C-alpha cells in the first residue's frame, strides 16, 4: 500500500513475542521504515564503539539501559531518517521513554503482541540472529535455508548473549515491572491495539488487517 501521509507506529510486547518477526512483515507489506532499539544497541556492541561497550553489561544481564541514554539515541535516529513513516520496535519501554517520544512525535498506533511467557522461553533458546541486518531465524519456526547461515548474505548466524534461560527470565521480569505500565499509558491515549496468541502466523492476519484499515483512513483524509 502506498503511503501518502506520514504514519507513525510502535510495536510492543515481551522479549521474544515476535516484534522483529512481525516488523519484517509490516516493512514488506507497508513500506514503513523499521527502527529497532535492540538492533541499534547490538550494532554498537558489534562495532565495539565506546557507547556499545558501556551498554553491553546491562544488556547481557537482561537489564534496561538508562532512559536518558536510549531516548536521546532513538530521538536522534528518528530525526536522521526525516519525514517518513516509521515503525519503532523496542522503544519506548518505560513511561519516561514514552513521554520523551511524545514530546517530539504523535504516535498513531501501538501494536501490542500479547504472547504467554512460557511460549517465549521455548522460542528464545532456538533463535539465531544475523547481527548486521537484525534478521531472525528459529530452528523450529523459520529455519535458515542453510543451517547456521543468513539466507540473504550467506554470513554466519549467532545466538544472542542475552538469550540464555537465566537472562530471559530477568528480561521478562524487567518487562513486567518497567514496560507493562507503558501499555496503560497508550491505552489511556486510545491508540493501543492488542493481539493475543501463541503463533505469529495466526496473529499476523489481524495485524495486517488493522494496518490496512488505519492506512486507508489516513490516505482518505489526505485525498
Ligand atoms: P530487544 O532487542 O528489543 P527484546 O527482548 O524486546 O529485545 P527480542 O528478544 O528481540 O525482544 P522479539 O523481537 O519480540 O524479541 O521477537 P523475535 O525475534 O521476532 O522472535 C523471537 C524468536 O521467536 C525468533 O527466533 C523467531 O523466529 C521466533 N518466532 C516468532 N514467531 C514464532 C512462532 O509463531 N512460533 C515459533 N515457534 N517461533 C516464533 O532488546 C534487547 C535489550 O536491549 C536493551 C535491553 O537491555 C534489552 O533487554 N534495550 C533497551 N533498554 C532500555 N530501553 C529500551 N528502549 C531498550 N531497547 C533495547
Ligand atoms: Mg527483536
Automatic annotation (TrEMBL):
Keywords: GTP-binding, Kinase, Mitochondrion, Nucleotide-binding, Transferase
Annotated EC: 2.7.4.10
GO cellular component terms given for this protein: mitochondrial matrix
Reactions mediated catalytically: GTP + AMP = GDP + ADP; a ribonucleoside 5'-triphosphate + AMP = a ribonucleoside 5'-diphosphate + ADP
PROSITE patterns, alphabetized: ADENYLATE_KINASE
Positions bound to GTP: 16-21, 127, 136-137, 200
Principal place of residence: mitochondrion
Subcellular location, record wording: Mitochondrion matrix
Gene3D superfamilies per the UniProt record, alphabetical: P-loop containing nucleotide triphosphate hydrolases (3.40.50.300)
Region of interest called LID, as start-end residue ranges on this chain: 126-163
InterPro entries: Adenyl_kin_sub, Adenylat/UMP-CMP_kin, Adenylat_kinase_CS, Adenylate_kinase_lid-dom, ADK_active_lid_dom_sf, AK3/Ak4_mitochondrial, P-loop_NTPase
Pfam families: ADK (PF00406), ADK_lid (PF05191)
Location of the Adenylate kinase active site lid domain: 127-162
GO MF entry, a single one: AMP kinase activity
Region (NMPbind): 36-65
Subunit structure: Monomer.
Family the UniProt entry places it in: Belongs to the adenylate kinase family. AK3 subfamily.
HAMAP family hit by this protein: Adenylate_kinase_Adk, Adenylate_kinase_AK3
UniProt protein name: GTP:AMP phosphotransferase AK3, mitochondrial
Gene name for this UniProt entry: ak3
